[in-house]
Write a structure and sequence with these properties.
heterodimer; A: mainly beta; 6-stranded mixed sheet; 4-stranded antiparallel sheet; 12 strands; 0% helix; globular; B: mainly beta; 7-stranded mixed sheet; 52% strand
């Protein structure tokens, strides 16, 4: 079945550091891939997505590239800010699903000033 | 722009009590769902619905009931609360084929 594995947290970085949060997946065919972010005390919100191989999703300085050959969708940001502190979730939607997402466990990111 | 509205935001129950978590959306989305979020467990799907009159079980449905009488509303009922149901509950909705879920702000439930 489909699954998503993301790096365990918490990840602690200093402000302006480079960020990578790893996400790999198992799925048949070409799923759609997503990163969601959850700020403290809030619900999740979509950060970026990619729907086909080699697509790059980007938003708020974050980027992730859909790599079919390595079944990965790693989240990156060149210079993090304290306001990026949050929990980040990687997710996929299988080709046979209109709605259901398969979720990673989430990675807590802590940015220190 | 209300989006997805959950009530109440906080609730404390005693074991055995019943309650309903409300979820309302104004985006005309077909799909509505309930998740629970527990430390170290990520998000787990409780129940979902793909339209009025249609509901189905997710990963952890035991102890919860749902109904979908209108497109807008998707209440989650706990008939006899247990301490294991202490959690943060999120309602999420989606339009067909988009894969983008819109989440409410969450309802924090404590069962004593």
């Amino acid at each position: 079945g489909n699954s998503v594995t993301q790096m365990e947290g918490p990840v602690t970085l200093s402000e302006e550091a480079f960020l990578t949060i790893n996400c790999t997946y198992t799925a048949t065919g070409y799923p759609s891939l997503f990163w969601y972010v959850q700020y403290p005390g809030e619900g999740l919100q979509l950060l970026l997505k990619a729907t086909k191989a080699d697509d790059k999703g980007s938003n708020k300085g974050f980027e992730a590239t859909y790599r079919k050959e390595t079944t990965s969708f790693h989240l990156e940001k060149g210079s993090v800010q304290v306001s990026d502190s949050a929990v980040y979730f990687c997710a996929l939607r299988g080709m046979d699903s209109n709605y259901q997402l398969i979720w990673g466990a989430g990675t807590k990111l802590i940015i220190k000033p | 722009n209300a989006g997805v509205t959950q009530t109440p935001k906080f609730q404390v129950l005693k074991t055995g009590q019943s309650m309903t978590l409300q979820c309302a959306q104004d985006m005309n989305h077909e799909y509505m769902s309930w998740y629970r979020q527990d430390p170290g467990m990520g998000l787990r799907l409780i129940h979902y619905s793909v339209g009025a009159g249609i509901t189905d079980q997710g990963e952890v449905p035991n102890g919860y009931n749902v109904s979908r009488s209108t497109t807008e509303d998707f209440p989650l009922r706990l008939l006899s609360a247990a301490p294991s149901q202490t959690s943060v509950y999120f309602c999420a909705t989606s339009g067909r084929g988009t894969g983008e879920l819109f989440f409410g702000e969450g309802s924090r439930l404590t069962v004593l």
